[in-house]
Amino acid sequence: MDYQVILIENNRVMLERLSTVIQRTKGFSLVARYQRAGDALGQGAVFKPHIILLDIDVGENRGLIHEFAEAFQNAAILCISNHWDSDGASEVVKAGAKGYLIKPFSSEELVDAVGTFGKSGMAFGSKSLAFFSPKGKSGKTTLIANLALSLAQKSGEPVGIIDADLQFGDMAVFFNLTPKSTIVEATRDIKFLSPITLNSYFVPVPEMENLRVLCGTRKPEYAELVNIQSFEEMVRMALSLYRYVLIDLPPGFNPISVAAAELATKTYMIAMMSGGFELVHMRRAIEIFKAWPDFKTRLGTILTRVSPCNSAERKRLESILEYPISAILPNEYILVSAAANKGRMAVDIQPNTELSININKLSDDIIGLQGMRW
Amino acid sequence: MEEGRRGSIIDVFSTASAVGKTLIGINMAAELSSQGYDVCLADVDLQFGDICNYLHLMPERTIADAARAVKEAPESFDAREFLDVYRCDDISFSVLAAPIRLDEAYNIEATSVQNILQNLQFNFDFVVVDTTSAFSEINLMVMDMSTIITFLGIVDFIPTIKNMKIGCDTIRGLGYEDSKIRLVLNRSNSQTKIELGDVEKLLGDHFYHVLPNDFEAARDSIMTGVPLVHTRNTALAGAMRELVARYTNQAVEQVPEKRGGGVSSWLGRFFN
Ligand SMILES: Nc1ncnc2c1ncn2[C@@H]1O[C@H](COP(=O)(O)OP(=O)(O)OP(=O)(O)O)[C@@H](O)[C@H]1O
Ligand SMILES: Nc1ncnc2c1ncn2[C@@H]1O[C@H](COP(=O)(O)OP(=O)(O)O)[C@@H](O)[C@H]1O
Ligand SMILES: [Mg+2]
Ligand SMILES: [Mg+2]
Question: Using CA of residue A72, residue A76, residue A80, residue A83, what is the dihedral sign?
């Protein structure tokens, strides 16, 4: 059966235009349309709609979302508006809407919106996680790729990775993806995007339907094209699409890593044990984050290639760092690098290794984290 | 001050971290100094520079002080006032240390670094510059100023090779003479299944020099704060000294032909 759609649109011309789009969309039937929300509330039930498209550019309609949700319990309410506004989107989702669509929309966008929001609705209480490392070769990308997979498997919720290691992003190689669009295009277009269209800039990971990746630049010089403000807007919008947004970053303090850390629900600082001065660097970097009044909850730390990887070693490292460690990962060089070379992840290939167990533990902690408003 | 002989700048650069830039920069400086040259080693890994860590130096003045001074009084600026000295038997060279504080590091401007390096060039035969792994404004400026760019790579897993390829292509795109860029492979015999020949084909160039993997020697050098070339008895030290000899020898070297042709192996599919 087709999706039965009720359309509520105040503007007469727009009502006609959107009606035509819905009628022409395969799999969708327009069963009723109204200019006034009150009419839809009073008369719509007889049509047993699956989808209600509600114009929220009429201010009072926002206040009716809750009533719609009560009155049409089997329908998904998608708000339609002529612009995206992340604060507004967060409000309507709280009130009971499932998603948000920018008008005028095309048939494809309508189909995508229902596909994306239909099942679980727009993500709410989403978490953004920034991964910061003082120096490179910290095991950061390896961890993010594995953790994202683990989060996707365990939570069953949509997970997005943003590769913001602007010059040398490796995420596409890790998952063996060939992106048509990257962070450059997503940030360039952000003003014109809605969550639905942004979703299409993220590349799906094969055989993992709830994990998508926004890949990094194709050339280092494109890094300059990524505007920081657009990046911030893009992350906020991504939070309406994915329950978990994981952000890979270039090493050190730079405009993009600082912006991501400021924005993120939680920042993890990562270093790899390599017999050098990684703990010294980490201590210095932690001092910077102490400027946050809530750094104790907002900043986590992760050490990779820890050997022996046990609680005694963890305590020893914590006393050197003078900071709690959120997770330690063992030395699994052969496993993680062989997996990445094949576009696969260690947690998937060998779920019972200590590495996978520790990553899964971390993902449990993250699932338990308090979410943030977007 | 703007006239007279200017020394060479040797930039040590890579597009991946932890490939050995700092270790090799230190050993270049050490070897050049034991050959009798006046050498300064500059730490332009501003935020997390390791030179003083690896050499066990406790600097009193850093590049951050130099940057302030050169900005305030460019006319009277003398970079020598901001250097430390590393000494060990016949090895002796100056060190321009990385900043102590991260906020100092974050705020140093590329033009200040440029002015400092220019000043050092008048006072030293060689200025060896250790950098970070990115095409940042400062690193690009150092590349422009450099006599030679030592582009270091290692072959560990596919992403690193991808970044080495991107780095090579980007540097070539900057329009320098081919002879300015020296591709050096570090840790050549570390555990990996990737064929060196395939990597060279992909990069379209031979490695100018190859340094072996010697984990223990590298670790000991960092633990003791003594450059590898001081002891001279390891293959790694030997290979480093050869590299420096190739930089200082006036003898004309045979330039190998460019590598060409397709990358036949499975490596190729990542770079189509
Ligand atoms: N030829 C080698 N054989 C064995 N180990 C090596 C070799 N070269 C470097 N190493 C080791 O690799 C690690 C990284 O080296 P180093 O700190 O010099 O790299 P880097 O390129 O300066 O890194 P970063 O970009 O993080 O500053 C060190 O522990 C060093 O001892
Ligand atoms: N837990 C681990 N044990 C051993 N090696 C690891 C571990 N995690 C990552 N590596 C290896 O370290 C290198 C750098 O990892 P990567 O994730 O690319 O770091 P970054 O993104 O911080 O540069 C890779 O060769 C990777 O296979
Ligand atoms: Mg990475
Ligand atoms: Mg270094």
Answer: positive
